[in-house]
Amino acid sequence: MSEHRKDILAMLAEGKITATEAEQLLAAVERDRPPAASSDDPRAKRKAKYLRVVMDANEEGDATRLNIRVPLQLLRAGVRLAALLPPHALDRANAELSRSGMPIDLTQLKPDQLEALVEHLDELTVDIDSADAKVQVFCE
User: Fold this and answer.
1) Domain total for the chain?
2) For 49-60, how does the pLDDT look when each residue is reduced to its tens digit (9 = 90+)?
3) Element at 92 (helix H, strand E)
4) Which of 24, 111, 133, 139 could form a disulfide with 57 if both were Cys (CB 3.0 to 4.6 A apart)?
């Protein structure tokens, strides 16, 4: 039982407030309290805010560490921004991406599909181990 509930019930027992006032206060406490996370519900966990990429590599005695934390809000903003670009600009950007070895079609990014993508990223964990490098990609 929360401290607020105990205090309200104590005030009611002492006669400082009426049962109606206690009921109103308890309702306000319940309304202001964040929902309790059930350990049985995997979706009850905290929503991810960042896409994280961590790499440790040791190539020819040269240790390299990479630690990137990208806000998922940046992903949302980027998709919304891409939806505002004129078609000829998207075609040019797609051509440059393809020329750089990243064949991504920006015209296929839709803001209404973004939340489903972010939800799937929330469950993403990738570990790559090799003899000289370890890479982790996950959401936090």
Assistant:
1) 2
2) 888 888 888 877
3) helix 87-99
4) 133
